Amino acid sequence: MIRDLTFSPLLPLPVLAVFAGIAFVLIVFAAWRGLSGWALRALAALGVLAALSGPSLKQELRDPLTDIVFLVVDESASQDLSTRPDQIEAARTTLEARISAMPNTELREITLRDAPDNRGTLLMTALSEAMADEPRGRLAGAVLLSDGQLHDVELAPDFPAPVHLMLTGEPQDWDRRLVIESAPSFAIMDEEVVLKLRVEDQGAVPNEDATSPLLVSIDGEAPQSFTIPVGRSIEVPLMLPHGGMNVIQFTLPEADGELTTRNNSAMVQINGVRDRLRVLLVSGEPHNGERTWRNLLKSDPSVDLVHFTILRPPSKQDGVPVTELSLIAFPTRELFMEKVDDFDLIIFDRYKLRGILPASYLDNIARYVENGGAVLFAAGPDFASADSIYRSPLARVIPVSPTGRVIEDPYLPRLTDLGARHPVTQGLGGLRFAEDEPAWGRWFRQVELEPDEQGETVMSGLDGRPLLVLDRVGEGRVAVLGSDHAWLWTRGVEGGGPQLELLRRLAHWMMKEPELEEEALTATAEGNMLTITRRSLTEGDRSVTVEAPDGTVSVVPMEEIAPGRYVAEVTGGEMGLYRLSEGDQTAVMVLGPSAPREFEETIATGDKLASVIRVSGGGTFALSDGVPRLRLVEEGRVAAGRGWFGITPREAYVTQSTRLSPLLPGWVWLVLLAGLSVAAWLREGRR
After folding, report:
1. Separation of alpha carbons 294 and 490, rounded Å
2. What would you report as the CA-atom Rg of the chain, rounded to the nearest whole angstrom?
3. What strands lie across the sheet with 553-557, from one edge to the other?
4. Cβ atoms within 10 A of the Cβ of 490, count?
5. Beta-strand relationship, 565-571 and 559-562
6. Cβ distance 148 to 603 under 8 Å?
7. Same structural domain, 386 and 449
8. Domain extent for 259
């Protein structure tokens, strides 16, 4: 039971103040003049003011509330290093026992894990959320079991009691990390790209090494070793080996005694793109399809087109020498002998032997293909004639042979079973089965071709005869289109067809664009989900082998979602480099950052929480020195010292009932005041 004196004035306070002022002036005047009975009248005036102030006696029945202490245990990934798990467990047990033994005190324990989406350790967020669930007036303190490496210190709450940090880790801890300071997201093929990185040491470094070895691996291949300085930024020049996505991994070998190797690797994904595609278009004679090729190539701003067209063949007998058939001499030798390797693609459009290009030039083009070049033959009637380009040194790289027959009947181009799976023709709309009719316009001419054993027929024409044949020759690629009527689709004859898309894919496949490779294993990452895609020309069930950053290997079945296209989805549990393999295809993919945010800084420190601890009056203690003693500290006093920390009792309570009664009954006030007044009158009259 708690008793207290309260006042409920019967008059407004300003009125009481005026009465008190008047009474004070009169009493002072009476005392100054020495009037008899002034002291009694002063008591009477004070009694009147006391009665008008309404004094009451308040009695409360209270139930005391326990004080609440938070114990926030940081169990993020960085707390698994070295001796930290044992330190946390020992400190948790000790603190639970000591705090629970305190009278009128409750312990609230909060366990903190890694935040999703690589946001790190959100220690202050956890403390704020815990505060929101408890009355502020009951909070007596908070103890943080952590390494002090948090990522939301700017969200620190206004805690009404001492906050203490129990710091895990050892004084001799040290770590080495690799930091990528700048890296481009794409780079031009065959041009040097520069990355900026830094190796830095943290903590109590035992030996101040001036240099460190660095391993560089591209797409998971065997790494190359370099030596770089420690503690300062360096620039690393690289040349991308192929177009498309290149995954570059930088790794520092483990140093003796360092805390972890999780931050020794860094990965960069750089998309390799071609600066300018140089295409040589050789047209044997003007025709409708020539404009289609030219418009397609000129519509792409990244293509540099050199167009070589024979407008007047030397077979025309008018006595004009061949060297005088043009206003300027065309640089055939420079194009076909000296500069041929500079082209990414050469297209022969209805070209036949006319003596303009000597056999040595054509032999040089065959060599260009075998060494990695690309040639597309768009065949017309001349391909089946005695002057066919097939009857030249180029025959050794052409995957078909003409029978000499040109078919002039209408037909619908179709995809073969192989073409339905090949990335050049897959999904164009042509159907695989004879009874199905593609929604395309017809063509009206086809050169009859006999493919060799290595050529891949992806489109067929009349009676299933080969129409589009692809082949790999040496390191290069060759394609033969057995008709010059592709332009009919561009003009929309009988509804047209996907001619521009077909020719675009064909040209890009020949220039070895990664997204059009027949056999490929690729992956994309979104959040913690890996989507793995396998393209293949062969049929059958497939499964992909996934090796996680921690070395765990799993086999995931793949689903065929389209002919030649298999997909599997994998939920990644750990951030870092994933190695994928299926058959003879391998790939690497980075899920999240190679070094999670939790491992960017691993050395225990109280610096980041210093301002929060100082404002609350708490302290920072190293668990390597043991768990400090616990004390009770009055509010506003220092709550930490050498070997001890304190919590502040809040003495919170809940009022169960309240009783309010007058200090004196009204008749008592009346008798008291009347008695004082009469005594003063008698005193004056007696005088």
Report:
1. 13
2. 45
3. 553-557, 543-547, 576-582, 585-591
4. 18
5. antiparallel
6. no
7. yes
8. 174-268
